[in-house]
Amino acid sequence: MNVHHTTQIQLLQVRMDKPVCFIDTDSAGKLRVQQSALKILEQIQQPVVVVAVVGLYRTGKSHLMNRLAGKQTGFALGSTTESKTKGIWMWCVSHPTKAGTTLVLLDTEGLGDVDKGDPKHDTNIFSLAVLLSSTLVYNSRGTIDNKAVMELQYVTELSECIKVKSSDEDADDSSEFVKFFPSFIWAVRDFTLELKIDGKDVTEDEYLDFALKLKHGTSRSVIEYNFPRECIQRFFPSRKCFTFPFPTAPENMSRLGSLDSADISSEFLKVTDHFCQFVFHDSCVKRLKDGHTVTGRVLGHLAKTYVDTISSGAVPCLENAVIAMATIENKAAVKEGLQVYQSEMEKLKDSFPLELKDVFSEHQHLSSTATQAFMKRSFKDTDGKYLKSLEEKIIKLFDEHLCQNEHASKKRCEEILSSLSAPMMVKLKKGFYAKPGGYDLFCKDLEDIVNKYNSQAKKEVKAEEILEEFLKQKSVDSKAILQADKKLTEKEKKIKEEKEKAALLEQEIKAREEKLRQLEEKMEAVRQSNEERMRQMKEKMDEEMRLQREETERAMNRKLREQADLLQKSFKEEADVMRQEMEEFKRQNTESNRAGELVAILENSSRRHEEEVATMMQQRSVQMMAIQQMIVRSEAEINRAREFAAIVENSSRRHEELMAMMMQQYRANMMAVHSSNGCRTM
């Protein structure tokens, strides 16, 4: 498909040799998205895996991101006490293990920089990293002790900085974060401790779980201790930990990006490689609420929506962002689907005129392809509004191309008749038919033209209609020749005139019947296109419902594990809260109205199809009535011609009988005269 080919070309053009600034602040200190970064993302129509790194400034975040990009340098590495990275920087590279996917790396400004004026700036940067990523890497130094956990205070503020639903702004819907938040990796840099708990060797993940272990009690200090740990456990669907030793000697840290591998600790390189491989294989494609896959283009729209919301002083809402994305993407999906149909139909025009079945066949194929292109890009078209728009635009284009095909067919038919009737026109100009017997000669030539035309134009859409017009035009010449033909009597002329009227009416009926047949073919093509559209729509809705179920199941499984862990550690109250959240997930999943939406969309589309068919059936009925009326007229004309012929025949027979009687009387009189003369002579 051409759209796919175009996409490949666009993707090949996205070659980023170095990162670019994605989000920064304007002169007033408000966040903004860089247009140059949006233009890059706009070209990426592949799904994206988005990995964002956050952490305190001067903890070596940028080095990890460079390694994920497969480069030694790229993101700026600072060697001073101030944050080197400002805002959020972006680097898009081909995913090393997932074909057809782009890896988007986001390096964020270091948190906790004392030079920042806005106390909310760090929280906003952290919130954007969470909202935009599918994997969030939190980078810290030393150990995961209480101080390190408390420095991750931004997690505790997420419930105030991010909303899932727009229906109730004051409600706490943070229990649903686990459905949409990224997976969480804690990268501990310059780790020097042994991985042991109570003298037993533990894994890095067990070390993280131990650091996030809750305390029993209800005192203020216990609540403050538990709160950030509960947030991390509740909000993020999965957690992973990597502990990195010192990469090199302290005096070499300022030039870490330019060091040879021999100058870097082999253990550090080993952990870094393990970290990169985990991110490559386990980081998922970014998805929106309800499971819609995010492309580079959608990621750009998301970033713009979230940043604009934060800059306005409002709280970013996942539901509102999805609605905004749906509007943008669905409009673009209609345009894309229509472009697929229009570009290929324009190519078909070069072959006009074509048989109607060929045009219908191509229409059905392109309509299906256009719907596929639409379905691929659209999402949450809950009332079928945008699919209906595409359908209406395609039908309009289809009718236009049918008219253009008819025009081309008309032109060709006229050219055929013009060529075939040229000798006749010469004879007419020379007066060839203006003689006794000329009418029969004219009729013979006209019959030859019609036979040859039917042979050459039998597959043309307008064949019968143009022939009808041609015969009507020639009937003027025919009447003139008939009236001037002295070989024919007035009665014979009358008979031939009636027969000619019947022949013209018969051709008119054939033209109407051909139109009726074409209308019925169009109705069948529309029916088949509608069935295919409904099939694709159902597949799309089934896929969306499947993703929604999987989204809920993942969150449920995660909460079940947490509940079991809490019960095991005797945190019954917290486990009961978790149980209530799971019950709410179940209720939401049960009450999901996607099935109802599917039924409504199918019913609306079916109703539109029925209305369209009803319109065509009405046209068919009108044409059928017209044909029946013409048949009645034709039969009446033929009957009149027959009656007239019978009258003429009867009149002729009576005339002959009268003449015979007169001749018999004449002979008898003559015999009587001869007999009288003979008697006188004697």
TrEMBL record:
Chain coiled-coil ranges: 454-619
Sorted UniProt keywords: Coiled coil, GTP-binding, Hydrolase, Immunity, Innate immunity, Nucleotide-binding
Source taxon at top rank: Eukaryota
Residue stretches spanning the membrane: none
SUPFAM superfamilies referenced in this protein's UniProt entry, alphabetically: Interferon-induced guanylate-binding protein 1 (GBP1), C-terminal domain, P-loop containing nucleoside triphosphate hydrolases
Pfam families with a match to the protein in the record: GBP, GBP_C
Domain GB1/RHD3-type G as annotated: residue spans: 45-284
Record-level Gene Ontology MF annotations: GTP binding; GTPase activity
PANTHER family assigned: GUANYLATE BINDING PROTEIN (PTHR10751)
Family to which this protein belongs: Belongs to the TRAFAC class dynamin-like GTPase superfamily. GB1/RHD3 GTPase family.
Protein name: GB1/RHD3-type G domain-containing protein
Provenance organism: Cyprinus carpio carpio
